[in-house]
Each structure stands twice: as C-alpha cells, then as structure tokens.
Amino acid sequence: MRKNIVAGNWKMNKNLQEGIVLANELKELLNGATPNCEVVIGTPFIHLAAVAELVKGSAIKVAAQNCGDKESGAYTGEVSAAMVKSTGAEFVILGHSERREYYGETSATLNAKLALAFANGLTPIYCCGEPLAIREANAQNDFVKRQLDETIFALSADDFKKLAIAYEPIWAIGTGVTASTEQAQEMLAYIRSLIADKFGKEIAENTSILYGGSCNAKNAPELFAQPDIDGGLIGGASLKSADFKAIIDAF
Ligand code: PEP
After folding, report:
1. What is the pLDDT of residues 136-165, one digit of tens each?
2. What residue ranges line ligand 1, CB within 6 angstroms?
3. Alpha-carbon distances of 29 from 133, 139, 180, rounded to whole Å
4. Which residues are catalytic?
5. What is the arithmetic mean of pLDDT over 223-227?
6. Average pLDDT value over all residues in the chain
7. Beta-sheet strands, E only, within the chain
8. Residue 44's closest CA among 17, 21, 16?
9. What CA–CA distance (Å, rounded) separates 47 from 57?
C-alpha cells in the first residue's frame, strides 16, 4: 500500500531560531496524534540536526532540500548525503526545479545524488515537472517522461521502490496558480502508467506520487481526493504551521 505524504519545503527561509519555532509549533499542533499521512519538513541544512532532535518521537520526519553529488572531500560549501543522514534526517528532496534552473543540476548530477542518497539510507523525494512554454505547447508528457527516463527510471527496481516522486509544474510553483485538479490527476496517472511500463503494475501501485505547486489548505482536499495524488510537496504554505497543519488534515 502506498503512503500518503505531506512534505514541506521551507526553501531558503527562516533562520535557525525561527525554524525551531516553526517546527515546534507544528509539533504542538499535531499534539501527539498520528495523522492520516506521513508528515515531512524540508528545512535548510543548518536546521536539520536541531529540528530532527526536536521532532523525535513525533509523527514529523525531516528532509534536506538537497545533498552533494560527491561522497566527501574537497568540495567547499557542499553537504554530503552521509552528513545529512547523520543529522537524523530521513528524506532528501532531489531535482527541485529551482536547483535545476538556478544551480545547473542535470540528470547526470541527479543520478550521482540519487546513488549517494540510497547508499546513505535517505529516501529521495524526486521532483519533476515542465516549464510553462512546454505546457503551452502541450508537450508536458514527453518532457516529464524524459526527465524520468534519464534519472529514476535507470535505477534498479529495489532502489526505485524506496523513493517518492513529486510532480511540480514549474508554472505553478510559488505563483499562486495551481494546476487544475484534472491537470494534476492526469499527469500523476500518466507518471504511474510509465512506472507500470518500466517496473510493473505492483511497483507502480505502491509508489507515492505527490503534487506540488501552490498547494494550500483550500485546494488540498480536492487534489488529495484524486485517485493518483498521494499527497503534496508544499512550499509557501509550509512556512505557517496552521496552514501546513490544515493541509495535513486534508487527508
Ligand atoms: C515547491 O517549491 O516545492 C512548491 C511546491 O512551492 P509552492 O507551494 O510555494 O508553490
């Protein structure tokens, strides 16, 4: 049975003290309850250890937003998958469109990061999604298929089974424009059909596929009610504990 997941992506927001306050607020809002979905918060690197310690024993799990593409060594400013794991984080977001666009991440970089994430026991949340021009040309399916073919579809079935996927149309990220429920469901069903072609129906049925892009407390219930939408990757709305909790409660 695949898991429902609501994962926050704080991006480069909140200093350490503010991040601890936010994580603590969410923990208090959950109040020891077990939500109907896995709850993950993706914090900046410097918050990981403190937040992982704070949420220990609660339903909240912690993700890094990236990891290095090398194991260790003279790579100034980088943070390795092993370092992420040593903080207590369990997940790593990989392939976010902002990393691809602003930091030049290619499929080759992502493949190296995926391998290191698995080698260090981290669960990748692998992001894919098309820019506006591709959607306007109605070429989104081919675009996303290529992203998957070049990266996670080259994994072994054993590794593939461990990850989650987030479809995030770039035109919907941080714009306030959400893909319609139909557009989101259609793409996630398409991705699941590609997984079935590649790895078989059982693995496809067991893969958690999330929608991301201006998901909020208002649109989450309808999105999460779709048969192929197993949760959300949430940017802006994860920065306010009450908003994020309301999205969790959409399950
Ligand atoms: C994201 O960047 O992962 C995201 C979905 O952002 P937002 O919710 O702000 O659109």
Report:
1. 999 999 999 999 999 999 999 999 999 999
2. 9, 168, 173-174, 212-215, 233-237
3. 40, 42, 29
4. 96, 168
5. 98
6. 97
7. 5-9, 38-43, 60-64, 91-94, 123-128, 164-167, 209-212, 231-234
8. 16
9. 18
DSSP character string of 119-131: HTT-EEEEEE---
| Nearest CA owner, ligand 1 atom 3 | 235
Phi-psi region of 174 (alpha: psi -120 to 50; beta: other; left: phi over 0): left
CATH code, residues 5-248: 3.20.20.70
Model's pTM, two decimal places?
0.97
Rounded to whole angstroms, the Cα distance separating 149 from 135 reads 19
Whose C-alpha lies nearest to ligand 1, atom 8?
235
To test the ligand 1 pocket, which listed residue (6, 101, 215, 219) has its Cβ within 8 A of the most ligand atoms?
Answer: 215
pLDDT at site 178:
81
The first and second tokens of residue 95, run together, are 């392939």
Query: Residue with the nearest Cα to atom 7 of ligand 1?
Result: 235
In angstroms, rounded to a whole number, what is the distance separating the alpha carbons of residues 168 and 229?
12
Map out the domains of the chain as residue ranges. 5-248
